[in-house]
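Researcher: Structure prediction, please.
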Amino acid sequence: MKKEHRIILDLLEEHLEKNPSQRFGQALFNLGVNQFQETTDPRNPNYNLRDIYNDADLHIMERIKNRLGLIEAQKNN
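Model: Predicted structure follows.
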């Protein structure tokens, strides 16, 4: 297994252990693994999934780490 894969799985596992009431799919969205497509009109949200097929593992890791930082910051406020 690639090092990046192990890190992504470990981050996901840690998040799910801290948040046992979250479903797996919720965790993927909450951590930024899966995302909705961006929209230019905030009055007309786009609920189609963004294609993450070509996202590099490092980019996914960074999204997860950024989201975990935001989640922690929200808990501390």
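Model: The chain has three helices and no strands.
Researcher: Thanks, that helps.
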